[in-house]
User: Fold these one by one.
Assistant:
Number 1:
Amino acid sequence: MDTQGLVGIVPWTFIAQLCNLFIQLWLIKKFLFKPVNDILEKRQKMTEAELKGAREAKEKAETMKKEYETSLSSAQAQAAEIVATAQKEAQGKADNIVKEAKEQAAQLTARAEADIAQEKKKAINEAKDTIGGLAMDIAGKVVEKEINENDHRKLIDEFINNVGEAS
């Protein structure tokens, strides 16, 4: 056996193998790489579209977040203003109620003092009428009788007793 024949290069076989290799490369390029590249391009475009959509959604979400935070702070400021206004109104109403109550108390006190003064005058007038009547009675008795010292003391004691009973 010829060992060199096995290891050697046969030119026609080498040319056939080269042609076979180029044909295979052309077939692989035409039927395998082109569809695979088309699929890869489609996937790349789809990925880019999804990334673009995600970026837009993120920007929209950030815009909405800013609007929400702005409206939230605005609502908190309005709520604080409403609470402050309500507190001022409540304090004003409370002050008015206290003022009216003090005025009513002053009016009631003035009426009570006027009633007391009137009752006092009425009591004094009644006491004067009673004393005047008693004085008339004593004067009548004095005129009827001649007064001596014992009679005079009796009349005074009687007058004092009558005044004590009348009051």
Number 2:
Amino acid sequence: MTDARPIAVFDLDGTLADTAHRQHFLERSPRDWPGFFAAAPQDAPLPEGVALAHEAAADCALVYLTGRPERCRADTEAWLREHGLPGGPVRMRRDHDRRPAVRTKLEALRGLRSGRTVRMLVDDDPLVCAEAERAGFRVVEADWGRTSAELRAGQEREGRT
């Protein structure tokens, strides 16, 4: 039987996972992306995002939509399990895809919407949130994390997360 419930889409970094302890990898020139992603398993969960994910899972199927590269899949899925997040597929960026997060995430959201109702997107990136709203998605902007200017640049200009 196929799950016909609406979908709630959750970002990871800055929404569910606290990246503050690893943002220093992005303050260097050049940015240390391998170090940044290698430290992800030590992220603390962000209580506000985790609570919202559990609340949404009561009547929605969850999809995790992240700009993390595919090579981080095992660590990412282990982190979600370790912190007791509801199950759901994880949509990740192809390893060498450097398009801006706003482009990759909107493309993924439109694909999800073609087959099911997307109840909401929860993301910390203001550009992603604004574009998703313009495209007709209900958005919850995750303003509870601490995202540095360097991480924002990585999301939007460097297509890294």
